[in-house]
Amino acid sequence: MPTKYDDMTPHEAAEALRWLALMGAEEIILAEQVNRLAAPAPRAPAAAAPGVPSPEAPSLPLAATGPTAAAGCNSLAEIAAALEAFDACPLKKTATRLCFADGNPKARVMLVGEAPGRDEDIQGKPFVGRSGQLLDRMLAAAGLSRGAEDRDSAVFITNVIFWRPPGNRTPTEAETLMCLPFLLRTIELQKPDVIVCLGATPAHRLTGRSDGILKLRGKWMTANVSGRNIPLLPTLHPAYLLRQPAQKRLAWRDLLSLRQMLDAH
User: Fold this and answer.
1) Which long-range contacts (CB under 8 A, 24 or more apart) does 188-192 make?
2) pLDDT value of residue 56
3) Residue 1: its pLDDT value, please?
4) Phi, psi (5° rounding) for residue 109?
5) 3-state class of 230 per DSSP?
6) Reading across the β-sheet that carries 221-225, which strands appear in turn?
7) How many CB atoms lie within 10 A of CB 245?
8) 231 within 8 A of 220, measured Cβ to Cβ
9) How many C-beta atoms lie closer than 10 Å to residue 85's C-beta?
10) Nearest CA to 186 among 86, 12, 66, 70?
11) Mind listing the pLDDT tens digit for each residue in 124-167?
12) What is the CA radius of gyration of the chain?
């Protein structure tokens, strides 16, 4: 039966597709419909690396404000639970699920990205899509892995933002500030020897610098978290490297610098 869309002009069809993209629609068809505004149905905890807290950890009676909620957490599992109970960030209402962390909590190296994407939103883990697959290959070349049990060879991965922004848009200043206390508390509890910032956003938030990532990358800096100075290395985000593969040589230099730092300490 003809529909009202059968007589759309090519221009009208293109505008309709553009509007859908702006609204964050990316899948043409799925096995079943997904209502991203509905409360998620109960589900079994997703498999995680040993020691990584599940987002389904019991919720805690914490205040709604980010700094207060974060400060009340005494373990990574409690941070995951506090984020599940944290309703102040509007991104939580449009995301499918929380995307907190992955990897070995005892790792010497913490990787911090910007925000989850589509695949991360589906799986509830950071860096599991194409960018994550490239990141895993890059880490392997430097003798590191999110699945390693040895803390010297392992990494712990998280983001500045813990819910996917609609359509993968850039997080707003307000959204970033809401999530930042949880990131800082995660750093306090995980106690990394080194932080690697994947992209400009985490580098800006943890160093106070505002330069572009091409100017920041490869330069060792310091993140002061609760009075502890932690060596910090900004580098290029894997998503950027997928768009600009010629820049992989710069990322490789950064990985070599990271390897040298770890071997020297």
Assistant:
1) 188/225, 188/226, 188/228, 189/73, 189/74, 189/75, 189/76, 189/79, 190/76, 190/105, 190/107, 190/110, 190/156, 192/107, 192/108, 192/109, 192/110, 192/156, 192/230
2) 42
3) 46
4) -110, 130
5) strand
6) 101-103, 155-159, 109-113, 194-198, 228-235, 221-225
7) 10
8) yes
9) 14
10) 70
11) 999 999 999 999 999 999 999 999 999 999 999 999 999 999 99
12) 19
Can you read off the two tokens belonging to residue 68? 């207060």
Query: Secondary structure of the chain in the HEC alphabet?
Result: CCCCCCCCCHHHHHHHHHHHHHCCCCCCCCCCCCCCCCCCCCCCCCCCCCCCCCCCCCCCCCCCCHHHHHHCCCCHHHHHHHHHHCCCCCHHHHCCCCCCEEECCCCCEEEEECCCCHHHHHHCCCCCCHHHHHHHHHHHHCCCECCCCCCCCEEEEEECCCCCCHHHCCCCHHHHHHHHHHHHHHHHHHCCCEEEEECHHHHHHHHCCCCCHHHHCCCCEEEEECCEEEEEEEECCHHHHHHCHHHHHHHHHHHHHHHHHHHHC
In this structure, the chain runs to a length of: 265
How many Å apart are CA 69 and CA 63, to the nearest integer? 5
Structure pTM?
0.77
Query: Taking Cα atoms as reference points, which of 169, 32, 25 lies closest to residue 91?
Result: 169
